Amino acid sequence: MTTFICGLVGLMLTGLAGTASAAELLASVRDQKGRPVSDAVVLAIPLDRKAFDVVKPNRHVVDQVNKEFVPYIRVIFAGTSVSFPNKDNIRHHVYSFSPAKKFELSLYSGVTAPPVLFDKTGVVVLGCNIHDWMLGYIYVADTPFFAKTEREGQAVVENLPPGDYLVRLWHPDLEKDEQSTIQRVSVTDKAANISWTVALKPSFRIPRPTGANNSGYR
Amino acid sequence: MIPLRTGALLVAQAFCITIGLVSANQAAAHWSFDGAASVSYDNNLGNARAENSVGDRALSASIAATQSEYREDGASISWGGRLAGERFAEYGGLDNLALAANVAYRRKMDLGAFAPWWRVSWSSSALSYRDHARNGWLHQAELAAGRRLDERYNLGLSFRVEKRTAAGSPDQAPGLSADAFSQLSKSLGVNAEYAPDRDVVLSLGGELRHGDVVSTSPRYRQVFLYSKAIAADPALGSDVYAYRLTGNTLSVKLGMALFLSPDSCVHIGVQRILTHGEGSNDYAKNKVAVSWLGNF
To answer: What are the residue boundaries of the structural domains of chain B, listed by start?
Structure first.
């Protein structure tokens, strides 16, 4: 009986320890002028590759709303499928020329387009062949531990098993290669902090047609 | 003279036939609606020599409905109608309504935002002026092509043939037509856009036009000698005449669009127009317009 109770307590403690061991990484990103950077992708790559076993790829969605991709940037783990539901009342023609995933979803409405599997890491730039100003990104990550900064330039990478990580940053306007942002961080059961100050190129996207001439679609 | 009601019926008929012909796949078609309102000033309404020029400001508004059908090969067919009105502050004879039907076929040559495209389009408008001599039809056929060079620069070229038929006036001179407002012309245009910001688009356009021009002025020997038609033009004064002659016109237009929202913008346009008419009947005019443009 004593052995059973000890075993039970041991199991409970192990369970608690397991819960407590999932740590957070608090990231903060600012640009060269000290302004918060939103939509920056923070990626934590564990040096112990066993940590990958805890997360399985799942499905994600990139919507098309008012002739824009929503969200502008979607981060997924390699091996994840993404659906592209069209919530506009006009058909879209989604494509990508990116080496990480070349694909084309010819004209469709609603949810008729099949999900696309992203099994190669890298940046996938999305466009619409009808509405040239539509631009979106899918970052196919080589780690399941990632987050994206909000308006205040902050992000929280959750559920990190304790250990050592190489943490890097990506943003579409990043002036230097993302490899230049790598920092090594040790994560224990407490929250760890990391911050970057990065140089960004001036951001620019194709404007919508003005309607002042008839050369474009509206 | 073609009254607006008759014109409207004809345009509506053409519109229905067009829709019937091209909308084989209704499920794939998409309606869009455009609205515009503008205030403008033209310093030489009658295209007269400098000493006879008169200017006026105008308010105008238009609504347009366009149905577009896109195809997987990058082509699209669009067709629609447009109703526009213009009201002048002083020269009320120029107040007008226009009801137009149009159809266009556009083809993108490849996939992506930077693929070149071309478009062929046709538009017919019934024109109704307070000054009935200007009533009539305006037919335009255009071949256009363009390419976005990068995120900031956009380039377009166009060639347009324009035929305008007018109701005309009683003969003013023996042996000379009074059909002064009917015109035929060909134009070659180029337009470049530069976006310094995603919410601002600057444009610079140029156009060379050859064909009929109408110049209104008091009786003037030099213009009379080269005129193909003459008609009284009460819309611009009690003792002035509209002379139709052949000329070459160069126009340069500067524009700036400021986006208020993803679907609406304010556009400011300034245009300089120089015409060299036969017999050195030359004139110049400037136009400026501030417009609101919206898409629904």
So the answer is: 4-22+37-295
- Using CB atoms, which residue from B36, B104, B111 is nearest to A95? B111
Supply angle C-alpha B39, B270, B216, rounded to 5.
Answer: 75
Instruction: For residue B233, give how far its alpha carbon lies from the nearest alpha carbon of chain A (Å).
Output: 31
pTM: predicted TM-score of the whole model, two decimal places: 0.83
- Domain range for residue A129? 56-143
B4-22+37-295 CATH, one of 2.40.160.40, 2.60.120.200, 3.20.20.70, 1.10.10.410:
2.40.160.40
pLDDT digits (tens, 9 = 90+) for A161-200: 889 999 999 999 999 999 999 999 998 877 899 999 999 9
Tens of pLDDT, residue by residue over B27-69, are 467 788 999 999 999 999 999 988 889 999 999 999 999 999 9
Closest chain A CA to residue B144: A215
Out of B72, B151, B265, the one facing A206 most closely (by C-beta) is: B151
> Whole-angstrom Cα distance, residue B163 to residue B140?
6
| DSSP code for A130 | S
List chain A residues with CB under 8 Å of B77. Answer: none
- Residue A184 inside a domain? The answer is yes
Strand A122-128 to strand A116-118: parallel, antiparallel, or no bridges (unpaired)?
unpaired
| Cross-chain Cβ contact B70/A91 below 8 Å | yes
Residue type, A215: S
Q: How far is B173 from chain A (nearest CA, A)?
A: 41
